[in-house]
Fold these 2 entries.
Entry 1:
Amino acid sequence: MRICLIGFGVVGRSFVKLLTERAPVLANEYGFAAKLVCVADSGGAAVSQRGLIGAELLAAKESDGTVGAVADHGLTGCSVEQLIADCDADVVIDATPSDLSSPGVAMGHLRAAFRTAKNAITVNKAPLATAMPALLELAAHNRVQFRYSGTVGGGTPMLALACECARGDDVVRLRGVLNGTTNYILSRMHETDIDFDSALAEAARLGYAETDPSADIDGIDAATKVVILSNLIMSRPTTIRDVDVTGIRNVSRNRIETCKSAGRVLKLVGEIGESARVGLAEVNADSPLNVPANLNALTLTLRSSGDVTLVGRGAGGIETATAILRDLLDIWQTVGAAT
Ligand SMILES: NC(=O)c1ccc[n+]([C@@H]2O[C@H](COP(=O)([O-])OP(=O)(O)OC[C@H]3O[C@@H](n4cnc5c(N)ncnc54)[C@H](OP(=O)(O)O)[C@@H]3O)[C@@H](O)[C@H]2O)c1
């Protein structure tokens, strides 16, 4: 399978390492062989129909800051959309930053892939948050496969579990702790007597919070995951404008103490029932949603079978790369081994 990878940061590089390491197992167990024909970052691209070598891409990125420096195959000053359209790939993977203020860039990557009959995988939540119904329609119209399992739960297969549950039963409600950073902050406030600012500073020191943590603490990241679950699992055309969102910025010690004395725990919960929302919710201490540290959890309420919960790490480079690999195998098995 010929792959075009856009974005060579934490996730993109982890994916190339994983693909290289697992190549023998993938060939033996699935008869699957992959070839990287185009890899791009913000500084340039490397292109080769015969296949790029993972170690050379990683070395060029390390030494020169861009894959555009790969000997014989490097390019600079190229249009990424044009590269996607022109390359001879079976699948395009978008691992560029999720920026809700400019989702158009990543949207352009997906559109270029669909328009030129290429399957696509994205871990970038921004285009899904703002235009998932339109993107699903565009993929279907162009008869290509579109996968995004790394956008919810990182490497924990939350979308796969939810789809599996929805196959034989009705999902009547979904509730989840869908953002690791906010869960870490609230958990620390619950376990110790620190305030919100100290817990946030601790999360930043440990690398759980971004330099600009607004998307996490204002609930936007969790809301994008609610959008994805709502479209995929509940079959409701939803964008982020349909989600009622409140973050955790104003959580006081008082609120935490009141919860604690009632034997409950404060969580940032994304929920889809009658409507879609993200906000603070008090859960019982023995609730499956009471997950510690930066873990994620998703509970599906099924009409016949009751509640099913999946818990796991919601982010991480290698974890998310695993989700991409799963999507890749899934596409390959769906479209057939011909590619
Ligand atoms: N990290 C995680 O744990 C995690 C988990 C789940 C989902 N995700 C999602 O995965 C995506 C990638 O995350 P990351 O942690 O790998 O981010 P990252 O380390 O910032 O890497 C982003 C990559 O995209 C490149 N890039 C930026 N704009 C570009 C453009 N217009 N065209 C081509 N390349 C461009 C960057 O180029 P330069 O290298 O030149 O800067 C960089 O290589 C994000 O959407 C994120 O939300 C991440």
Entry 2:
Amino acid sequence: MTMPAPTPSFEINGNLFGEVPGVPVGMRFTGRQALHDARVHRGLMRGIAPMGASIVLSGGYEDDEDHGDTILYTGEGGRDANTGRQTADQLLTLGNLALAQSMERGWPVRVIRGHQHDATIRTGYRYDGLYRVASYWSERGPHGHLIWRFRMERISEPSSPAIQAGVSEPASGSHEPLRAQTMVSRIIRNTRVGDQVKEIHDYRCQVCSTRLETPAGPYAESCHIRPLGRPHNGPDTLANVLCLCPNCHVLLDDLAIWIDDDRMVQPYGKRLRVDPRHCIDVMHAQYQRALCDKR
Ligand SMILES: [Zn+2]
């Protein structure tokens, strides 16, 4: 008896992120209205949906490069509405900013390909699964104008860094979908609690007080005190996470620092930054200390 896995998705301000219930990868849609109605891609004109929840590759953009598992997606703006040619610089605003924020937050992006982009689709649009924004940058295109580019990577791609960090369940036969599902669930699960802890601490590291600023906004990482997955089985709850800068995240994961019962970060002898909205369970700190051999 196997229970169906819960659909990994979440909603922010009416925007659905991740998988859309009842919409499997490969599902076809007749047009943009059908995509909109099914909540796969909101809006009828723009390539980037509100908050970057999805993108449509529609063949209109000369700079897009599609390699299947990776896509170099060109941002929006600066194009002539009639010819589609780049006639001005693109800015890191609106949809472009939303995709940049997707990377900082680790949010998944649904990718839809259209028949004008991919001739094998013949007609309409196809939902092609979840990708993540792996990096983004500005460059000058062959037309002489600045464009923003987004390197998108398929989340289910086994060689992606995310899956190496994921908790994959070895299984016989076709375990790939399960693996992908597990990883997507994990990314999204992390996102909810992670976003919460970052907001409470305003993206400031609870250990060293660093607050990193990027063009897409502040950046911080959520870090589980007692690790998730086997054999530690730490819970994905606020009581088991910290808001950390990447350096302190590595130090905690690699057992170089630990938190004592007085909320002091050792061996620094530094007080952990706390907030009344975020209570850490000392049991989880004790567990992590034991991993460090610092009982
Ligand atoms: Zn730090």
